[in-house]
Design brief:
Spore Coat Polysaccharide Biosynthesis Protein SpsA, Chain A; transmembrane helix; Exo/Archaeosortase_dom; single chain; three-stranded antiparallel sheet; about 15% strand; alpha/beta; hydrolase; nine-stranded mixed sheet; 14 strands; Exosortase; Glyco_trans_2-like
Length: about 475
């Protein structure tokens, strides 16, 4: 009986991964085609010993490499399955492939597999990484590689597709257990992605797929990418990291998972944004001499240093003014701005509640409303983390001193006005039992960070417009 599908595998120095993948598809009796991009280890000999059809082609990027493979291998089966060498077919998927019949899928052109991604031996289950569907199996004459992508590769098929939710592939690059390899690889990827985004700004690249939030997994990705390109650079990595960690529960992936989400969602995206600015500035240099190529990097470094300085200074000062081993009576009694802010917030809440007809009383830390409830203002309630983030960004940004001071003061007042509103709502309506399920601190911080990012975006846009007009 002739085979129904063939495997196509891309390799480059995969002597540790290729035997693992080949072993996982043993017994499926499917032809194997391997496109190598100049391996210097034992990859080629492993492929030859396995009886695979082998071709060599210089690597430029993944979409072009896959396009070469689909156009140059002599595929005789109606279906192809395209895998990377660091992927493995699970027994569940192997069983689905064993039972696969072309006649049962006459009206289907593509099949999505469900991926489990591993980093340093840990399954990254949250943060949007599972379930994660990849179009890996499609009709040979129907599917093609999307050349409008420079780094992310995907296959496109017209017509109907289906998802095998239980058909898993395991993706684990053992070379990434060395963090230097991961960083070097993503540094190269950031070059490709930055150039791609600049080309999209210049309308030199278009999306092949129609973005659709409710469409196939790849159409949904296209929609999210379109949204991503509209977000302000440098701010979007912060937003994306918070979104993955909180809304997509990335924090549940443990220490290793949190490191992965930080590197992949924040560090990598921030490097891409820096390189985008470098590319834009290098293009501007061709017409204007004296442009500063490193301003974006300097801004990021200034911002991070200021944020860390403000954030940890507040924590240090709180420790010095709180009873304990390092308590400083002079600071606590004469220079305690933390207690001063707490007292101001409590006083404002009390006055507003009394004006609203409630009976409110306060002490040094607490707010109580007769017949309603009580709250205690601990350090995390005061908003110093939010203020540190906001102030560091504004100070680091190249604008006039007068504009920065005015914006910082206005921003701090706005943050604390919203904080007062939160305290009033909490003391009047908060159900403490619900607090065990929903953390109002987290919700408030997420909302405020989003509002801060939006306000910073429009402020930066206004300042850039004014600078360009002046120039």
């Amino acid at each position: 009986m002739s085979a129904t599908y063939s495997f196509i595998i891309l390799t480059y120095n995969e002597e540790h991964h290729l035997p693992r993948l080949l072993a996982s598809i043993t017994g499926l009796n499917a032809p194997v085609f391997i496109l190598d991009s100049g391996s210097t280890d034992h990859t080629v000999s492993i492929a030859q010993q396995a009886g695979a059809t082998l071709l060599q082609h210089t690597f430029e990027n993944h979409p072009k490499q896959w396009d070469f493979a689909l156009r140059n291998f002599d595929i005789q089966t109606p279906w192809v399955i395209c895998l990377d060498a660091d992927q493995v077919v699970t027994p569940e998927l192997k069983q689905l492939l064993t039972n696969f019949k072309d006649e049962d899928h006459q009206h289907v052109n593509g099949i999505y597999f469900n991926r489990k991604n591993f980093f340093k031996g840990r399954w990254i289950k949250h943060g949007g990484y599972y379930p994660f569907y990849l179009l890996k199996m499609f009709r040979y004459n129907a599917g093609y590689s999307d050349l409008n992508e420079n780094m992310d590769h995907r296959f496109i098929v017209p017509g109907k597709t289906v998802i095998w939710k239980q058909g898993h592939i395991i993706e684990e690059n053992l070379k990434e257990n060395n963090i230097s390899f991961w960083i070097d690889k993503h540094n190269r990827y950031s070059d490709l992605l930055a150039r791609e985004e600049v080309e999209r700004m210049q309308n030199l690249r278009q999306q092949t797929l129609k973005p659709n939030l409710l469409g196939s997994p790849d159409e949904r990705t296209a929609w999210l990418k379109q949204l991503w390109w509209q977000l302000p650079r440098y701010i979007r990595p912060f937003f994306y990291f918070i979104y993955r960690m909180v809304f997509q529960l990335g924090v549940l992936d443990g220490r290793t998972g949190i490191i992965f989400h930080f590197l992949q969602a924040f560090w990598f995206r921030l490097i891409v944004d820096v390189k985008i600015d470098e590319i834009i500035k290098s293009k501007q240099l061709q017409a204007q001499t004296g442009a500063h190529q490193n301003s974006a990097v300097k801004f990021v470094l200034r911002f991070l240093l200021l944020f860390l300085a403000f954030y940890y200074f507040n924590i240090l000062f709180f420790g010095l003014t709180s009873p304990g081993n390092h308590y400083n009576a002079f600071l606590a009694n004469h220079l305690n701005y933390i207690q001063a802010l707490r007292s101001l917030l409590l006083s404002c809440c009390k006055q507003l509640l009394n004006l609203m007809g409630f009976t409110a009383i306060t002490n040094q830390n607490d707010l109580l409303v007769a017949g309603r409830g009580a709250i205690r203002l601990v350090y995390s309630c005061l908003g110093f983390g939010l203020i540190s983030f906001f102030a560091a960004f504004v100070i680091a940004y190249p604008a006039s001193l007068k504009a920065r001071i005015a914006f910082i003061l206005g921003g701090i007042v706005t943050i604390e006005v919203l904080n007062i509103l939160r305290f009033i709502l909490l003391v009047l309506f908060w159900n403490k039992k619900a607090g065990k399920i929903v953390d109002h601190h987290t919700i408030f911080n997420i909302v405020l960070y989003i509002l801060i990012m939006i306000s910073l975006y429009f402020w930066v846009k206004h300042k850039d417009r004014a600078t360009n007009k002046h120039a």
